[in-house]
Amino acid sequence: MSLFDRRPALRWVAPGAALAVVVVGTQIATRLPADAAVTLPHITAAQLLTQVESAKPQALQGTVSVSMNLGLPSLPTSMTGGSDSAQPLSWLSGTHTAKVWYDGAAGSRVALLGDGSETDIYAISTGVWVWNSADRSVEHIAPPVVTGNHRQHPLKSNSTGTTADSQALTTPEGVASWALQQLDATTAVTTSSNVSVAGRSAYQLVLTPKTSGTKIGSVRVAFDAATKVPLRAEVYAAGASSPAVSVGFSSVSFTKPAAGNFDFTPPPGAKVTVQQMPAKPSANSLSSLGLTAPTVTGTGWASVATGTLPMTNPNVTEGDSGQGSPQRTSNSATSMTQLLKLLPTVSGSWGTGHLLSTSLFTAVLANDGRYAIGAVPAQTLYTALAKH
User: Fold this and answer.
1) Within a 10 A sphere around the Cβ of 369, how many other Cβ atoms?
2) Angstrom distance (rounded) from CA 17 to CA 157
3) Whose CA is closest to 166, among 11, 277, 50, 326?
4) Of the candidates 303, 9, 295, 43, which has an alpha carbon nearest to the alpha carbon of residue 184?
5) Strand pairing class (137-142; 271-276)
């Protein structure tokens, strides 16, 4: 059982399915303005972790500030989708805002706000719904069909973490959950000066990798002093004095959201795509999508995930979705092809491909579809690919 499973309070506001790689979900923002230190009763790191583990989920609503500063090259609007908040590449740079609502079994909702557009992600009793106002599209992931009396609520995580990670890009809980999974012998855990986040006093936990084989220098998580809910998470690159990532509440209220915040019915004329969530994801279900389950090598902060992606046709052009393929899928494939062309070509005994290197993580996509990703230097990925 992982630490994430033992600490359910750390993931209560993160329902659905996200960017596929947890490491990417941890690197989203530049630092929010620093708050003045506050005076709180002294507790040790161990005491804080114990209190976080025993904390009960809290109904809340608030605004989260998200921005990105990973040292990536500027991406053209045609690739990022401009103000379309549903396009993942649009969140790789700039500053973004999300609204969040949570109320236990009633549901969870995150609204990603764009310039003139909005993408809402609902995790409610009828499944996961994703509404994109830019193109009036709806994606519905229906609850799994199960036999017997047992039915898994869509807010609950399955063994793969699929439903737990969808909003890691937009909530402090998503970053905090990933970081706290790293608590083992390779991590030094301390506390630093208490802070004020969104007007609330908070204890700050600092996780520092003991290994030099990672690009991450430290992770700081601020927990609300009263509720122990994560209010802000910051990720620092090794040797950096300011964070490369910060996801935090700019305003938060621990009051029960109105029930209407969790109601969703596709608007008239919306394009609806329906998928059935498998009762238990398996290697066969991944294979049907052209995917293979990733293999993880190494430990802790220096671990590497390797796997194989389905290869897309580089000749597919935007506006030509192909028979039976949604327009958005074609556009996404085109954007990824364009992105790869901007990345340097690398080669070695493992093959030839393209390298994406940021301040916090590195990824390699080989021409044959194999990939490797981790918060490690490129050479570590090359070594892993040579064995995959």
Assistant:
1) 15
2) 10
3) 11
4) 303
5) parallel
What are phi and psi for residue 378, nearest 5 degrees? -60, -40
Is residue 365 within 8 A of residue 381, CB to CB? The reply is no
Which tens digit of pLDDT belongs to each residue from 54-94? 888 889 999 999 877 787 766 666 555 555 555 556 666 66
Widest CA span in the chain: 63
Whole-prediction pTM? 0.73
Token readout for 326 is 């949604």
What is the C-alpha separation between 73 and 133, in angstroms, rounded? 28
Which among 204, 205, 214, 221 has a CA at the least distance from the CA of 240? Answer: 214
CA atoms within 13 A on the CB side of 253: 7
- Residues 215-273: tens digit of each pLDDT: 999 999 999 999 999 999 888 999 998 888 888 999 999 999 999 999 999 999 999 99
Domains of the chain: residue spans and CATH:
3-262 (2.50.20.10), 282-387 (no CATH)
Q: Is the dihedral of CA 224, 27, 299, 178 positive or negative?
A: positive
Q: 19-67: per-residue pLDDT in tens?
A: 222 222 322 222 334 455 788 999 988 889 888 888 888 899 999 998 7
